[in-house]
Amino acid sequence: MNQSVGVLVVTGIVALGAATLASATDPTPDASKPATSMPAAQLVKGELLKIEGDFYVVKDPAGKEIRLQVSKDTLLDARLKAGDKIDAQVSPDGRVIMILKALE
């Protein structure tokens, strides 16, 4: 009898392990879990007021001044000057990805 109980316990453990493994490798997404995605970059539109070194000061449509700090990795439109309408893309962590002259 002890031997048959031992076999049942081992069989149960193996079956439980196989079920866990099958659910871990199931490629079907679970609808109850929220989808994870990267936060979207923010688009800043406005008038370029001035360029101060690495900072581009922009006035948005609501009249708020925004200072955008560029880096060597920022894609910049070489034609930019004060008074231009611009479109800037800013990452969720605040890095300025690009600043381009807006198409009017």
What's the SSE blueprint?
Elements: H1 2-24, E1 42-52, E2 55-59, E3 65-69, E4 75-76, E5 85-90, E6 96-101
Parallel strand pairs: 4-6
Antiparallel strand pairs: 1-2, 1-5, 2-3, 5-6
Written description of the protein model:
The protein has 104 residues and is an alpha+beta fold. The chain has a domain at 42-101: Beta Barrel (OB fold (Dihydrolipoamide Acetyltransferase, E2P)). Helix content is 22%, strand content 34%. It contains one helix and six strands; from the N terminus they run αββββββ. It has one helix at residues 2-24, and strands at 42-52, 55-59, 65-69, 75-76, 85-90, 96-101. It has a six-stranded mixed β-sheet with strand order 3-2-1-5-6-4, with no helix packed on it. The longest helix has 23 residues, at 2-24. It is globular. It starts with a helix and ends with a strand.
Throw out a few tags for this protein:
104 residues, 6 strands, OB fold (Dihydrolipoamide Acetyltransferase, E2P), globular, single chain, alpha+beta
> What is the CA-atom radius of gyration, in angstroms?
28 Å
Major sheet details = 6 strands, mixed
Order of strands in the sheet with most strands: 3-2-1-5-6-4
CATH fold-type name of the domain at 42-101: OB fold (Dihydrolipoamide Acetyltransferase, E2P)
How many helices does DSSP assign?
Answer: 1
Summarize, please:
The protein has 104 residues and is of the alpha+beta class.
